[in-house]
Amino acid sequence: GPVYPNGTASGPSLQDCGVEGCLYDLEFDPTEHTDLATSHPELRASLYRRAIELNMTVYQTPRGFMPDCNSAELQAVVEGGYWAPYAPLPYPLEA
């Protein structure tokens, strides 16, 4: 069988989409071969701004962070009867 998900390529695509990402018309290009970002920069910028705006309303745990289960801060939260985000707090907990 195919090694890569859709079997249409001999290897993974390593397209660099930069900071603001690529732009594809998924209705007409469902396999994402034609980046429209350069021909529609205003649409890409608009979608990027909207994604940033929506991202500001969502808490995302920092990737790769492992909590110190023995930390005083985490124990205070657990003993308080609720769980908080696993990321270190930017301020000390008051006793």
Structure description:
There is one protein chain. This protein has helices at 41-55, 72-79. Helix content is 24%, strand content 0%. The N and C termini lie far apart (60 Å).
Summarize this structure briefly:
The protein is mainly alpha-helical and 95 residues long.
List keywords for this structure.
single chain; 95 residues; mainly alpha; 2 helices
Q: Outline, from the CA principal axes?
A: elongated
Number of strands: 0
Largest sheet: none
| Tally of DSSP helical segments | 2
Helix content: 10-25%
pLDDT < 50 runs, ≥5 residues: none
Classify the secondary structure makeup into a structural class: mainly alpha
Name the helix and strand elements from N-terminus to C-terminus, one letter apiece.
HH
In terms of DSSP E residues, the strand content is: under 5%
Rg result: 21 Å
How much is the average pLDDT?
Answer: 74
Task: Give the N-terminus to C-terminus distance in angstroms.
Answer: 60 Å
Provide the fold topology:
Blueprint: H1 41-55, H2 72-79
